[in-house]
Amino acid sequence: MGVTKRRSIFTAVAVAALLMSGCSDRPPPNRVHSPEDVAGREIGAITGSPTLLLAEELGVAREFPTGEELMFHLRTGILDCVIMENSTAVELVSEASGVRILGEPLLEYDLHFAVAKENEQLLVAVNTALAALRLDGTLSGFIGKYFSGRDFTYIPPEGVQTRPGFLSLAVSPDSPPYSFVDHEGEFSGLDIDVARAVCDFLGVELRIIGTETRDLVTAVWFGRADLALGWLPIDGDEMINISEAYANAVHVVIVRRS
To answer: How far from chain centre, in Å, is Cα 57?
Structure first.
């Protein structure tokens, strides 16, 4: 076989391999067109987030530490979809290409404090504080701060009688924008701000206990914490009492545009 012929064969094989490689790099078409299509899929979620629990319940959960990694694996077809809290998803998708948020939410629920069954007095006190914070605009201010980017400065109430002792709060350290550890190593987020405002109203100190999302209910049930905020399952009221709602959470599905 001559040199020219060998080169021709090599070139043909190389071109074919290149074409096949190009085809394999294309992500498969989107197969998730509604929340009902999520079940049984390869679902991405942020490590330690409430939506990771949803992913584990609905399909094959794949966790990644950042939203950028989730978008990469979604665009390349490794993931069928990503589920995420709405405000975070909107910000992430606005900076990413080739992805979109489904119009219908996957899950929407109210946010409450968890309180031990036997501590009715604390439940009443928390509800009283939440009613006052709702009336004076503090709750809507916090919600606007974290979900709409509005400027809001919280001013603690004046003339509150300080009481001895403290209230311990169990929250996840990895559930932004609700609760997370900031760059200074301090707990921050909507839940933290609301809890501090409630404690300010009641005149007591707040102490925060970092807790895995799965253990929030049992932390209160077993007395490791007075209160808990975060992912509280609907059937949690068999083990705990829940306060009046202080905010509403929406979880959405992100898919490829293809």
So the answer is: 15
Tokens 């001895």 correspond to what residue? 164
The pair of three-digit structure tokens given for residue 221, joined into one six-digit string: 């049930």
User: Residue 126 pLDDT more than 90?
Assistant: yes
Q: Are 45 and 89 in contact (CB under 8 A)?
A: no
Q: Compute the distance between CA of residue 258 and CA of residue 256 in angstroms, rounded to an integer.
A: 5
Residue 4 reports pLDDT greater than 80? no
Taking a C-beta distance cutoff of 8 angstroms, is the pair 241, 114 a contact?
A: yes
Instruction: Please check whether residue 173 is in contact with residue 181, taking contact to mean a CB–CB distance below 8 angstroms.
Output: yes
- Please state which CATH class domain 113-242 belongs to: alpha beta
C-beta pairs of 147-154 under 8 Å, 24+ apart in sequence: 147/87, 147/177, 154/193, 154/197
* Global pTM value: 0.65
Cβ of 209: how many Cβ atoms within 10 Å? Answer: 16
- Residue 201 or 239, more confident: 201
Residue ranges, CATH 3.40.190.10, the chain: 22-107
Q: For 22-107, which CATH superfamily applies?
A: Periplasmic binding protein-like II (3.40.190.10)
